[in-house]
Amino acid sequence: MAALRTKQSAGGKGVAFLGGTGTGKTVRMKLLQEVIGGAYTDAMELFARASRYIDDPESFDNAINMPLLYCDNPFRYYFYLDDIGTEPAESVKYGQRNDLMESVIRRRYVAFLQGHVTCFSSNMTEPDLLRRYGERIVSRMKEMTFFVDMTGRDRRLSR
Length: 159
Hints:
The strands form two sheets. The protein has a five-stranded parallel β-sheet with strand order 2-3-6-1-7, with helices on both faces. It has a two-stranded antiparallel sheet with strand order 4-5. The protein has helices at residues 2-11, 25-36, 43-50, 57-65, 100-113, 126-133, 135-144; strands at 14-19, 39-42, 78-82, 91-93, 96-98, 117-122, 145-150. By secondary structure, the chain is α/β, with parallel strands linked by helices. It has a single domain, classed as P-loop containing nucleotide triphosphate hydrolases (Rossmann fold), CATH 3.40.50. 45% of the residues lie in helices and 21% in strands. Helix 6 packs across helix 7.
């Protein structure tokens, strides 16, 4: 964890934990949040919260950035987004369809350019992410984070 913290500080980048079920991605995300600080949410919770505000940019930004009021350091705010890929592919509001996670990642990319850090976790592999979100979004995710492959068996099943 110290090495990840050093990498984050050096490049201002977060971490994207990718791998199978039960490989420790969520545990590591929550540990980083506990050590470094910031806000944690999972993709389904974020989808439910942010889909209400997709047509109101200011409220949408507040929903996905968890206002900086809760941040000890307003110059480097950490946001942990767990289980991306589990959310619905799109949000529908008044007949208008939106790829909500694409909007979230684009806005977190703008936050990254301002010095804020985002960490992701997903059961998807990099090729799965490319199929789901497209090259442009995955390219932004790779610029914002260090991709870490979490391999091995499901530790929950081996208890």
